[in-house]
Amino acid sequence: MKERYKYPILWQIVMEFSAEVREGKSAFYGRGACLAIPVSDLRDRRLIIRRYSHGGLWGKLVGDILWGHNRPLNELVNTEKALKQGVDTAEVVALRFKNFFGPLCRADIFTMEIADAEDLIAFLTGHTAEEVLPQKRRLIGHIAKAVRKMHDTGIYHADLHLKNILVKPTDIPKVYIIDLDKSEFNTNEADRGLPTGQRMDNILRLDRSVEKFNRWRPDLKLIAKTDRLRFLREYTTASIANEGPDTLKNDWKDLARRYTSSYAAHRLWWGLLRTVGLSIYGFDKRPGQQ
Question: Does residue 206 sit in the same domain as residue 150?
Answer without folding.
Answer: yes
